[in-house]
Specification:
Diguanylate cyclase; binds ligand C2E; eight-stranded mixed beta barrel; binds calcium ion; 278 residues; globular; 19% strand
Length: 278
C-alpha cells in the first residue's frame, strides 16, 4: 500500500492523506446525519440582568454519530459551510428551533425569544428570507419570538445581505450580531443596519477580571450600544463576579455556564422554575 501510495500520490504526505480521508469520512457521515436523525438541538438560557428572568434561548446544534459519538459543532460547521450542507442543516435547525418555541408557548409558558445561528453561506442564498418566512408559517411562530444571530462577516458581504436584513426587520424578526468585537470590521455598519442586539464575545467576558483592558472594552461596548439604541447580551458568563460586573455596567442580558449550560429540550421547562417566577 505504501509503495503504491508513493507512486500515485507523490505530493501527499501520509499525514495529508490521513487528514483528507478523515475529512471525507466526516463529510459522508454529515450527509447522512439528517436522515439518520443524528442531529439534535440543545438550548442555552439567556437571562435578563435587570429582572433575573429567562427571556430567551439560543439553539445550538449537536451531532451524535451512531459510531463516533458526539461531534462538537466546531468540528463540523466549517465543513458543512464548505460543502454547502449547511443549507440543509441550517434549515433543519431553524425549523426545529421555531417548532420547539411554538410548542413551549402552546404548553402555556410565557413567550420567549429563540435565537438561531445563521452562517453567511445561508444568508447569501437567493431565497433565504422566503425560507425563513415559510418556516414561521409552517410552525405558526410569531416572528417577534425569533432572533437570527449573524456574524460581522455577513454584514460586510454585500448590498444584497443588507437588503435581506431590512426584509427581516420588516417581518418583525430580531437580529443580533454574534461574537461582537472579534471581526475586525468597521463600526459604521451599526449606524445603518437594522440590528437589535450585540452579543459580546466570550473572549472579552472571560478576561474581565484578568485584563483591565477587557473590562474597559466590555463597558465601552455596552455604553456605545445603548447610545445607539441597541441591547447587549454578554456570552460566556462563568462566574458570579462577571455577572455582577455586567449588571453594574447595565448590560441587558447574560448567557453562560454560570447561568446554565446548553440543555436538551425536555429540561427547558425546569429552566423557568430556576430563572423566573412562572
Ligand atoms: P457561538 O454561537 O458563539 O455559541 C456559543 C458557544 O459557546 C456554544 O458552543 C456554547 O455551548 C459555548 N458556551 C456557552 N456558554 C459558555 C461558557 O460560559 N463557557 C464556555 N467555555 N463556553 C460557553 P457550541 O455549542 O459548541 O457551539 C460552537 C459554535 O458552533 C457556535 O458558537 C456557533 O458559531 C456554531 N454553531 C452552533 N450551532 C450552530 C447552528 O445551528 N448553525 C450554525 N451556523 N452555527 C452553529
Ligand atoms: Ca451564537
Ligand atoms: Ca457567540
Ligand atoms: Ca463563537
Amino acid at each position: 500500500v505504501k509503495e503504491q501510495g508513493k507512486n500515485n500520490f507523490e505530493f501527499y504526505t501520509p499525514e495529508m492523506n490521513e487528514a483528507i480521508s478523515k475529512k471525507m469520512k466526516l463529510e459522508i457521515g454529515l450527509r447522512k446525519a439528517i436522515e439518520n436523525h443524528e442531529l439534535a438541538l440543545v438550548y442555552q438560557p439567556q437571562i435578563d440582568l435587570e429582572t433575573g428572568k429567562l427571556f430567551g434561548l439560543e439553539a445550538l446544534v449537536r451531532w451524535d454519530h451512531h459510531e463516533w459519538g458526539m461531534i462538537p459543532p466546531d468540528e463540523f460547521i466549517a465543513l458543512a459551510e464548505e460543502t454547502g450542507l449547511i443549507l440543509l442543516i441550517g434549515e433543519w435547525v431553524l425549523y426545529s428551533a421555531c417548532a420547539q418555541n411554538k410548542a413551549l408557548q402552546k404548553e402555556g409558558y410565557p413567550p420567549i425569544r429563540m435565537a438561531v445561528n445563521i452562517s453567511s453561506r445561508q444568508f447569501q442564498q437567493p431565497n433565504f428570507a422566503g425560507m425563513v418566512r415559510k418556516v414561521l408559517e409552517d410552525t405558526g411562530l410569531d416572528p417577534m419570538y425569533l432572533e437570527l444571530e449573524l456574524t460581522e462577516s455577513i454584514i460586510q458581504d454585500s448590498q444584497y445581505a443588507i437588503s435581506t436584513m431590512h426584509t427581516f426587520k420588516k417581518m418583525g424578526i430580531h437580529l443580533s450580531i454574534d461574537d461582537f468585537g472579534t471581526g475586525y470590521s468597521s463600526l459604521s455598519y451599526l449606524k445603518i443596519l437594522p440590528i437589535d442586539t450585540l452579543k459580546i464575545d466570550r473572549s472579552f467576558t472571560r478576561n474581565i477580571f484578568i485584563d483591565p483592558k477587557d473590562a474597559s472594552l466590555v463597558s465601552t461596548i455596552i455604553t456605545m450600544a445603548h447610545n445607539l439604541g441597541l441591547k447587549v447580551i454578554a456570552e460566556g458568563v462563568e462566574t458570579t463576579e462577571q455577572l455582577h460586573f455586567l449588571k453594574q455596567q447595565k448590560c441587558n442580558g447574560a448567557q453562560g455556564y454560570y447561568i446554565s449550560k446548553p440543555i436538551p429540550a425536555k429540561e427547558i421547562t425546569e429552566a423557568w422554575g430556576r430563572f423566573s417566577c412562572f
